[in-house]
Design a protein that fits this description.
Length: about 170
């Protein structure tokens, strides 16, 4: 198996982050999951959200893909809430569904942050790098990209092309 999935974490399905996701998905033929379309509740110590979309979604990812590319907009200097909730819920795999969680070991993770400017705070990638490390995943790297007036500037296309060719 050598399959890649993009996980989109924007608060709008067809916004700037989706413009980036579509560019990559069309070029590489990658599958895409839009977290906005999923019903994923906040992490709960009493596992209140056990019947929502999280477990089927992560199980599908684990069974079918080796590489996960997280694509998140920059919201308040960090990842989007949708993406943070997804990461919080991985705790269910550490506390309860441990066999499923262990299957993340050896998989690959990459991250793309997007905004409207060539500017991202230093350390934005730390939660991704450290989470990959904790989960035993290989961290393939990250880039910051930006969308201007609904378009991807030529320079950004170059950055993306270089990045995805190495994946
Ligand atoms: C709630 C919110 C917070 C934001 N915070 C930041 C920020 O801290 N830094 C930044 O450069 N842009 C920030 N932005 C701008 C977005 O990163 C930018 O518009 C991005 O392209 C939006 O992608 P989307 O259309 O997928 O939501 C913020 C936008 C929103 C909606």
């Amino acid at each position: 198996m050598n399959k890649t999935i993009i996980i989109q974490g924007s608060a709008r399905p067809k916004g700037d982050t989706n413009t980036i996701v579509n560019y990559i998905a069309l070029k590489k033929g990658y599958d895409v999951i839009d977290l906005y379309s999923k019903n994923i509740g906040h992490y709960d110590y009493n596992y209140k959200n056990e019947g929502d979309d999280f477990l089927p979604l992560i199980s599908n990812i684990i069974e079918n893909y080796d590489t996960i590319i997280f694509v998140t907009p920059v919201y308040w200097y960090t990842m989007s809430g949708h993406m943070k909730v997804f990461f919080d819920r991985i705790s269910d795999l550490i506390r309860i569904h441990k066999d499923t969680g262990r299957k993340l070991r050896g998989k690959n993770m990459a991250m793309i942050s997007s905004s409207n400017s060539n500017d991202v705070v230093s350390g934005f990638n730390i939660p991704f790098v450290e989470s990959a490390n904790y989960l035993g995943m290989n961290y393939l790297g990250d880039i910051h990209v930006w969308v201007e007036n609904d378009n991807i500037p030529a320079k950004v296309k170059g950055i993306i092309d270089d990045f995805i060719e190495k994946k």
